[in-house]
Amino acid sequence: MIEFKNVSFAYDEKLVLKEISFKVNASESLVIMGPSGSGKSTILRLILGLECSQKGDIIIEGRNICQMKEKQKREIRKKIGMVFQDGALFDSLSIWENVGYYLLEHTNMPVEEIGQKAIKMLGFVGLNAQEVMDELPEQLSGGMQRRVAIGRALLSTNPKVMLYDEPTTGLDPQSAENVLGLIKKLHHERSIATIVVTHQIADAIALANRFIVIVEGEIVFDGNLEELSRCYQPKVKEFLTPFRKSFIHVAQKKFIET
Amino acid sequence: MFLFSLRMLAAMFSRPFYLMETKEQLYLIGVGSLYLVVLTGIFAGQGFALAFSVELAFFGAKDYLGRIMVIAIVRELGPVLTSLMIAARVAAGITAELGAMKSSNQLDAMVAFGIDPIKKLAVPRLLSLIVMVPALTIICDVIAILGAYLIAIFIAHVSSTVYWSAVREKLIFGNIFIGLLKPIVFSFVIAFISCYKGFTSAGGTKGVGRATTDSVVLTSITILMVNFFITRVVFASLKGYIL
Question: Contact A84/B105, CB-based, under 8 Å?
């Protein structure tokens, strides 16, 4: 479904990704981990066609997104839902307008009908629609904003793949748990392929069965949890060391559960 | 910036057209800047009239005050001062708003939802400036000439008839043409620079602040430079025809 073939990318002179290759299949759940500034979020931007790689191919549904015209990219984006870091809600619009944004912009659907769909979606992402629908994004907590962003992505594009950029960063444990629960629910109930970028090991293990570790723009690990726990590649070890305790704890918990 | 400006121009003529956003911007730019332009017009007109009436009295030429006011206000001061005021208020606002949207990923979110931010955000601002800068310039001109009239009557003791006939004498097509051409050109300057600076701002809130300052400074300087070139070129090429 999505394939990176020897992709290199640089912002001006700074090389961010170095010849990375990987493939994501439909319905797969993948977590991309790595320290800050390692190029994780850039991968999501490349998938959406917000940036274009200088080298290599990014194949989405059999076509290279970098060679597409803007109109064709728009068609591809309709199949991809993106939840940006911090939600990226439109701060001048109310919550229901944010959720129904795509329908308001691209369809002739009556406003009342869009409002109803937005209310339904807010309920699906676990928010009390009547309470929050007329609020502005700044009036909601970080966790609620993140859930609105997920609802917006779902109602906008009816996606085949969901991209999450640091979905739990900056949230309290309860809100983070809610957002993780929602991501898992979406993946299982709707069979949507999921790509999550995070540097939180506990979240990564809770969300996926396949992990990519990226350090300084290079993929240093690609495999499942068992392989990750046995990996002695120096860069992977160095990245995991600060999280060793929580990693072992969460890994054991997940192993016992499964 | 040149390529960005071309993209804005091209986006002006292609669908979809965002009429609601344009109406909103017309109101924000036009009505929001009105008090500023009125105050500018009154004090610029009166200050200018006061200074000139003294000098003209020295040569016994106070009756020419109306003529000088029209040339100074309609051709030069009206368009420049109005545009500078709008640049200070509106350009700063546009850059800060777009910059904040960029730093919080809202512009990327728009693209992800199939919307061209240049069409949705930049073009309505450009269209509103094209309409509102000339309209506000006319208001500024009228207020300034009225302000100068008060100085002419009460301080310089020029008769009302003499003042208005002098004003009418110079209120010819050529002067009005230059006086309206300039604000239209300045509106492009304000829109191109402020939108470009907003769309390309980087470095979080500090970066937005820097982009906003750059936007106001660059817009103001460019307006003054473009004003000189328009006066030089248009005056030279149209002299004898419409002036």
Answer: yes
Residue of A146, A124, A125, A128 lying closest to A137 (CA atoms) = A146
Task: Flag whether residue A76 sits within 8 Å of chain B, measured between CB atoms.
Answer: no
Q: In sequence order, what DSSP letters do the residues of A210-221 get, joined into one string?
A: EEEEEETTEEEE
The ipTM (two decimal places) reads 0.83
Cis peptide before B79 (omega within 30 of 0): no
Assess contact for B40 and B85: CB atoms under 8 A. yes
Question: For residue B113, which residues of chain A lie inside 8 Å, CB to CB?
Answer: 77, 101-102, 105, 156-157
- Is the distance from CB of A47 to CB of A8 less than 8 angstroms? no
Of B63, B76, B188, the residue nearest B132 (C-alpha): B188
Determine, for residues B113 and A101 on separate chains, whether the beta-carbon distance falls below 8 Å.
Answer: yes
Cβ-based contacts of A89 with chain B (< 8 Å): 106, 109
DSSP state for residue B115 in the 8-state scheme? -
What is the tens place of the pLDDT at every residue in A72-87? 888 888 888 899 988 8
Q: Residue A258 above 60 pLDDT?
A: no
The per-residue DSSP string of A22-35 comes to EEE-TT-EEEEE--
How far apart are the C-alpha atoms of A257 and A159, rounded to whole Å? 29
Q: What is the pTM of this model?
A: 0.85
Tokens representing A46 are 């490349």
Cα first-last separation, chain A: 27
Buried b (16+ CB within 10 A) or exposed e, B48-74: bbeebbeebeeeeebbbbbbbbbbbbb
Q: Are A146 and A167 in contact (CB under 8 A)?
A: yes
State how beta strands A63-64 and A80-83 pair. unpaired
* Residue B3 host element (H or E): helix B2-12
- Buried b vs exposed e over A148-158: b needs ≥16 C-beta within 10 Å? bbbbbbbbbbe
CB B203 within 8 A of CB B210: yes
Q: Which of A105, A106, A146, A166 to mutate to test the interface with B (most CBs of B within 10 A)?
A: A105
Compute the distance between CA of residue B157 and CA of residue B166 in angstroms, rounded to an integer: 15
Place of tokens 């590649």: A233
Segment B140-185, tens digit of pLDDT:
999 999 999 999 989 888 888 999 998 998 888 888 988 999 999 9
Distance of CA B62 to the CA centre of its chain: 30
Terminal Cα-to-Cα distance of chain B (whole angstroms) = 35
Cα B189 from Cα B129, distance rounded (Å) = 10
Phi, psi angles (nearest 5°) of residue A75: -65, -40
Beta carbons of B191 and B215 less than 8 angstroms apart: no
